[in-house]
Amino acid sequence: MDTGTQREPEGVPRSFADRLNYLIDQYVKYSPEHARGYPKWPSFDQLAREISEHSGRSISHGYLHQLCRGQRDNPTLHHLEALAGFFGVPVTFFTDAGMTAQVMAEYELVAAMRDSRIREICLRAPRLDQQGLMAITNLIKNLTTAEDT
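Above: the chain's sequence. Below: its structure in token form.
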């Protein structure tokens, strides 16, 4: 994973397996074909087949299972590219905590935008001047801080 003295962002999965499992969770949660037919994870056989078909690169269900369970944690670039392409993330999602945090924030934003009230706020916000945006931002911060205590 990351080296050096930089701290990893909070809440970011550290291991390769945790990052891959996060993506599979998101895939199951937000993929229209899986949300309807698979309220839980697809089998490793099915998922490996889908990844292989999508990427044109072979990945076996056994190897995928080992990656998800942390029994293997150093996949080849070939497999990293297949996984990243299938899930629509950069390869660095698996190796860079900052990129992992960024992708996770994007998933949270997409999930938030599914709420019509949040969409309404977002659609109206561009009409505000800087002072109005700052007022709304502070209001939301104050409301969420009050709820957290």
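The domain at 16-114 is CATH 1.10.260.40 (434 Repressor (Amino-terminal Domain)).
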